[in-house]
Write a structure and sequence with these properties.
Length: 366
Amino acid sequence: MPTADYDPKEVAVLQPEVLDQDVAAARAAFLAAADLDALAAAHTAHLGNRSPVALARRELGALPPAARADAGRRVNAALAEVTAAYDERRAELEAARDAHVLNAERVDVTLPTDRRPRGARHPLTLVQERIADVFVAMGWEVAEGPEAEAEWLNFDALNVPAHHPAREEQDTLWLDPPSAGVVLRTQTSPVQVRALLQRGAPCYVVAPGRVYRNDPLDATHSPVFHQVEGLAVDRGLTMGDLRGTLELFARAMFGDDVRTRLRPDHFPFTEPSAEVDLLCWVCHGASAAGGDPCRTCGSEGWVEWGGCGMVHPVVLTSAGIDPTEFTGYAFGMGLERTLMSRHNIAEIRDLVEGDVRLTLGLGLEA
């Protein structure tokens, strides 16, 4: 126990001159701190649990009550001065830091804005949606189906017999095991059969999607490509209705000055059948008239756009539709060729090789 006549001056760390030295040392350390990290280290040294002022406070318990009050006031005053010095220096360093950040990260609002486009959806997606919009505006529905399709829907229901060349391996990609009768669909026509089975007649649907064929890659062919097929089944439909629909479709996609033609052809699922051609968008038919050779149209002046015709009665019967009461027409076009014609693209490979200058530019135009 401390004695009543204990002299507080005998506790060295509590002497006024020692406390003044501690305050001065703390001020000097805070002023010497060049940044907030250095100031944090100085704070620990002069305001932490092992700092001189903190150790002096611990000695107050050794003093008698009469002396303890006076020494406590001195310690508290020293602590307040050290704290004030720290707060002042911290405010200075934070202000300097904020000023540096504002200067380093300043934005010159007078500079031109960055006009580089941030991105765009793929042109094939956009042209597919554009086509869907055209037919939805005509009152048609958009139908979808699986890409791995049953052989019956891809061939048999479409009047493609087992001996037809289209079933041979060079055209069709079969999924293992072949005995399962599942193929990667060669056209979106199976979606039309599904639509007839689900909706019955009358039926007006358009079916866009990805298809697969074992075709060699060239300027206008690819083993993986996209099609859009349309089907209309109703009472009294004729080839004239088909021609009018194709004309409206072509003008909506290529403009009123587009030139198309129909050529007689044969498809198992339509009778009569025809090919729809577009005037070549690269040579504009000049190569067929003796001009420079054109690899896009093969110097024929026209590029095949798709096939069409009146729905074969066998297809209607397969879907449970009475061919004596209902007639229909169908057509199918390649989306890649549609896009190539819209934008004068000579190579189908340009659409899938990842050149963002082309795909981004077409995406922004669509």
